[in-house]
Structure formats: C-alpha cells, structure tokens
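Retro notes, item 3 of 5
We never archived the inputs for the pyridoxal-5'-phosphate complex last cycle. Fixing that now. Sequence and ligand:
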Amino acid sequence: MDWLNQELADIRNKGLYRRLNTIQSAQTPRIMKNGRELILLSSNNYLGLTDHPKVKKAATNAIAEYGTGAGGSRLTSGNTELFDQLEEKIAQFKDTEATLVFSTGYMANTGTIPAMMDKGDLILSDELNHASIIDGCRFSHSEVKVYPHRDASCIEKILQSSRHQKKLIVTDGIFSMDGDMAPLPQIKEIAEKHDAMVMVDDAHATGVLGKHNRGTADHFNLNVDINMGTMSKALASMGGYVAGSYELIDYLRNRARSFIYSTALSPPTAAAAMAAIDVIEKENPAKKLWNNVDLYRKGLEDMGFSINSNTQIIPLMTGDSRRTLDSAALLEKQGVFALGIRPPTVPDGKGRIRTSLMATHSRKDIDDALFAIGVIKEKFGL
Ligand SMILES: Cc1ncc(COP(=O)(O)O)c(C=O)c1O
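Structure as it came back at the time:
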C-alpha cells in the first residue's frame, strides 16, 4: 500500500498533517501535557463541569447502579431508565415537547438530516456549518445549496425560486470555529414566509447562551423546528440530542439510522449530562463564563486584535497552515495550550488558533494567557 505513504507525505508537505495531543490531566483550566503545566485555552468544557463534584458523583453512582455500558441499542435491550430520564430532562431544559438522544452530536446530525430530507427536497446550509451537518446533507441525497456565511438575503433569494417539496435551512447556532452567531430571527422570518423548516445545531450554545442558558433560540427568544445539540461540550459528557415536537421525535426514533443501529450511550455519560443540567439550572455557571469572555476580549482588543466573535469561542487568525502551526507551537512554549486549526476544518488561508474560555478560568489564568498571546502577536505579526 505505497499510496498510503505518498498520501501522508503529501499531507505533511502541505502543512496539514494532524497528530494527537495527549494530556495527562482532566479538562481543568491548568492541565499537564508532557510533564509541563499549561493553561488550557482550547476546551469545549465551557462551564468547567467535567470536574464538578456533583457531575462526577452522578457518573460514579450510575456505574454503581447500572454498570459501565448500555449493552444494546435503545430499540433493543439497551434502554435503561436513565436514558428516558435524560430525554425528559433535556426536553424540560430546552422547553420543547420531546427529545431524542444519540450517541454523539455527529450522529445526531448525520441521522436527523437524512431522515428528514430526501431526493427532491432542498437543504440550505451555511458555508461554515460543522462537518457533521455537511455529512448529514450528503447522506440525504437532497439538493444542497450552500449559502455565504450568515447571508439571510441569499437564503431568501434561493427560496423564492425553489419548487421543492420540502425545504430545510440548517445552521450552527454559535459557529464552532468563528464564535459568531447565526442570524436566527431573519432566518426564521424567511423560513415562515417560504414554508421551510429551520434546524439549529446548538453544540456550542447549549448551557451557555440565552436567558435560561438553553441556547441560540433562547437567546433570540424564538422557536425552531429542529433544535439539535450535544452533551459533549458545556454539558460535560458526551452524546447528541434533537429537541422538538412529539411527532418529530417519534419519527426520528423510527427513521434516524444512527439512532436505530448504534449502541446507546453508557449509563455514566447519561447521568453526568443530567447532573450538568441540574448544576446549570441551580448555579448558573454561565455567568462566570461571560465575565471571563468580557475580560479576555477586552485584553485582546487592548492589544490590537479585532474580534468578530461575540461568544466564548474567539479565534486568533493566523492565515496559512505553517504560520498557524508555528504560532500554536510558540504559544505552547509560552505555557498556553490552544489548537491551531487548518483546512479542511476551516477554508484555505483562514488558519487560526481557536481559543475558548471556561467559567473556571481564574483572573490569573486569563492574564497569563493574554501575556503569552502578546508574545506570539509580536513574533508573527497577528
Ligand atoms: C457545531 C458542531 N456540531 C456537532 C458536533 C459534533 O458533536 P460531538 O463531538 O458530540 O460528536 C460538533 C463538535 O465537534 C460541533 O462543533
């Protein structure tokens, strides 16, 4: 299989080779990596709940009671009562009629979109949507029109000339690599006018955005047809969910292949996600996160960065892949771990260091991180 080595050499030559970064601690504000303590500025553990005593205890108790694995798919023998409780909890948290839980967020998108959309239907998808949405669109065999980032007027133009049976507009709520938000009020208005469905991927907004921390729809005080999200980020666990009407969930339970043909989540992950929602409702950790976002943003702006994000995900643009890798490496030398993101995750020439805040970062963590960023800004002219 010589071609494998050739492909790998080609990936390396383009500066696109990916390797695993191994850390030796929990997802806390300061981590251990290769024997060094580093500030973690790249985690999706936005609320810091993977290390919360109540969340850890719930997971441990679930193992004691239900064991480590589900032992089957939800529709066969794997549906312990924990999963029903988790779905009820998410539905109540998201203020929807019902919820269906998948084993990952990736599977929620790749199962839901093809279940909803088929040949002869039309999907409108933001150009910066997450790969799991893109793959879900591909699996659907529908016509897919990719619209320029956040461009509601383009959505309207496409819908005006559409003669398709079913139409779906799908967008990230908070964009995973840019940290900006979908223009949901405009999208919703256009969708209503043209009888299209709206699906929002709230992987990065669940637990952090909106009056009740429910996500993007909560932030804009509106409803969408298909409210997808993950338990793998602010909810400190793993898995994906779709929240919506009874009929939607009943239908997906019968038609979403990634739900039907895969083993259920493990009991501790379900219990941890439920406990995280409890903590969010009782302790509102997002308040601390937003304080940290304000502090960090201000620090960056004072240094001369111009920031388009208005959330906890703040990319530092580095451009080409080499500069991205070199900047991330120097940042790590300065004591901060934040990932350099390159194509195909982001468009060509739009490499970046994706930084993200956690509610558990201290003032000193943020000050130290800003100091290190100042060093790479100076060196690479960011
Ligand atoms: C916007 C978005 N959707 C979906 C996913 C997939 O979620 P998961 O990691 O739970 O599979 C991710 C995360 O990686 C994401 O950023």
